[in-house]
Amino acid sequence: MNKNIKLTGDEISYIAGFLDGDGCLLAQLVRRKDYRYGYQIRVSIYFYQKTKRHWFILWLKKKLKYGTIRKRIDGMSEYCIVGAQPVKTILGFIGHKLRIKHKLCKLILVIIEDLKNVQNKKDFLQVAMLVDQVAYFNDSKKRKITASVVENFLNSP
């Protein structure tokens, strides 16, 4: 399901470059009491731009179709695409043009594929460990939920 996305070669290159510079690829472990293993593995793409250039974020959304936009109180506009299928679709278009984030892109795509094959706690924990690797690429400093936190939860009575 690609929502009929049509991008020129130049647009693909430009959007990939923008993601490399002013964007973020994330995989996160999010506590969810109603989820089978107590946590959700959430993948997302973020683009950031000063709100005075909010028009550019609107253009991106028009081109990529998925996601939501918000104007933050700090003067930044944020365009966020969340979910395995939308992220996989967008990375399918631009991933091959990424330079700085190309390894991170491949890792996010592995996480998306591996999530489809989770059958048990052990499988889920293996994917959670891949999420920990994403934090390395993103120089994460404030992360509190790691694979070891998930493992402790899964092993608790």
UniProtKB/TrEMBL annotation:
GO molecular function: endonuclease activity
Keyword flag Chloroplast: yes
One Pfam family recorded for the sequence: LAGLIDADG_1
Keyword terms: Chloroplast, Plastid
Keyword Chloroplast tagged: yes
Domain Homing endonuclease LAGLIDADG: 15-103
The name this protein goes by in its record: Homing endonuclease LAGLIDADG domain-containing protein
